[in-house]
Structures are given as C-alpha cells and as structure tokens.
TrEMBL record:
<comment type="similarity">
    <text>Belongs to the janus family.</text>
</comment>
<feature type="active site" description="Proton acceptor">
    <location>
        <position position="47"/>
    </location>
</feature>
<feature type="binding site">
    <location>
        <position position="20"/>
    </location>
    <ligand>
        <name>substrate</name>
    </ligand>
</feature>
<dbReference type="InterPro" id="IPR007702">
    <property type="entry name" value="Janus"/>
</dbReference>
<dbReference type="Pfam" id="PF05005">
    <property type="entry name" value="Ocnus"/>
</dbReference>
<comment type="function">
    <text>Exhibits phosphohistidine phosphatase activity.</text>
</comment>
<dbReference type="GO" id="GO:0101006">
    <property type="term" value="F:protein histidine phosphatase activity"/>
</dbReference>
<dbReference type="GO" id="GO:0005829">
    <property type="term" value="C:cytosol"/>
</dbReference>
<protein>
    <recommendedName>
        <fullName>14 kDa phosphohistidine phosphatase</fullName>
        <ecNumber>3.9.1.3</ecNumber>
    </recommendedName>
</protein>
<dbReference type="InterPro" id="IPR038596">
    <property type="entry name" value="Janus_sf"/>
</dbReference>
Amino acid sequence: MAGQLESVPAVEIDPDGMFKYILVRVQRAGGAEHRDVVRGTATAEFHNHIFEKVNPEMEKLGFECKCLGGGKIDHNSKDKKMRVFGLSTGYGKADHAVTVEILKKVYQDYEITWSDDKK
C-alpha cells in the first residue's frame, strides 16, 4: 500500500507564473497512512476547481482526498524562485510551511519562501 501512495506525485504545478494552489491529503479509503501533495494551476479560476480535478483522479486509484487549504504560488522558473502566500476563500489558508517543504523535495535547486501576505 505504501508503494502505491508513494506513486502519487508530490507536486503537480504549472511550470511558470502565478497561480492558485491547494494542499491535499491523500490516503487509502479507511487507512491511516497518508501523503500530503501540492496541486496548482493558472487554469483554475477558484481553488475548488483544482480539487474537483484531483479528487476523481485519486478516487480512481482507490484513494480519498481532503483539501487542507489553499493559497497562491508565484513560480519564476527563470530565476528558480517560488513564493507561496495567500489563502483560499473556500478552503482557508494552507500551512504554507508544509507546502514549501513538499516543493523543496521536487525543486531542490530553487529558492522557495512563504508568507501570510495576501498579495
């Protein structure tokens, strides 16, 4: 089971630009083991649009999802920098410190910061 959970990508975000993101807890239905993942895209007008895409994908794999909150990511791929900030009106503010730790595992050569700033 752990191997299957580990097969869920930790991060799926746009390659550049500013966009909304959500922090999602993924776990096997009825299971205690979980994995928190980051999903974000500029194509989402609202944070729930991201969750509405992620949730059915995870359900097909036999996982349950819970949105832990949201915010925005400013991704500058040229300068290898990311800034995590803001909140989701519907889901509340994600724990940006957790989000940054997840992002750093994938974007190891990036400078990644976070704040509670709205903009």
